[in-house]
Amino acid sequence: MRAIIAGFGRVGSRTARVLDEEGHDVTLVETVREKAERAEARGFAVVHGDATEAATLATAGADTADAVAGLTGDPATNAEICSLTTDHGCRTVMRLSEDLPGEIYEEYEAAVDEVIYPERLGAAGAKTALLGGNFNALAALTADLQLTTVTVTDDAPVVGRRINDLDVDGARVYAHSRQRESLTIPLPGTVIEPADRLAVIVEGERIDAVREALLGVRG
After folding, report:
1. May I ask the CATH architecture of the domain 119-215?
2. Alpha helices, DSSP H only, in 45-87?
C-alpha cells in the first residue's frame, strides 16, 4: 500500500513507523523543517510543505496513493487535506484532537472514510487497564455513539478474522493493539489474535449485540 501521512508529530510518526515496519510505502508531508528533517533521518520519504495545498500533495504522489491521512493536531487542517484527495479515489483518514459538538463530528465522519481520536483512545486504554474486563463502554462521542474497548478472548468468534472482514451491525473498529502496544490505526489485513485490543465505535442501542458478535457472550 502507498500511504501519504500529513504531520510527523506523535501520532503521525508512530503511524508511519508501524506502516513502514509492515512493508508499506510511506511518504510524509510536514510543514515544520525540523520535523521534516527528523523524518528524513529516520529513512522516510518526505515532502517539506503545506499539505493543504494541492501542489504539495501532488508532489507527494497523491494521484497514485492508496490512502491519505491528515494526522496534524488541527482537525480543520486534517479535514482540508482529506478533501483535496477525494478526487484521487484514495482512502482518507483524519485525526481529531479535541472534543467537538456531535454535529461537527458527524460532519467530519461523513466527509472522510475514517475519523480517529488518538487522545480519547489513549484515555480509553488507560481506563480499561484500571477497570479490567473484556468489554468497556468508556465515553460518549455523540448522543448515539459510544467509544468502546474490547479485549479479545481466546474463544471469541473474531479470532483469526481480518479486521477489514468484520461486518458487525452498529459497530466499526477504529483502532487495534497487540502485546500491550498503544492503540493505532488498524491495517485492513491485520488478523485478530487472542488478547488483542480493539477500539470500537458502537451505536448505543447495539452494545449488547456487538458484545455478542465480537466476544460470543451476552451482556
Report:
1. 2-Layer Sandwich (3.30)
2. 54-60, 75-85
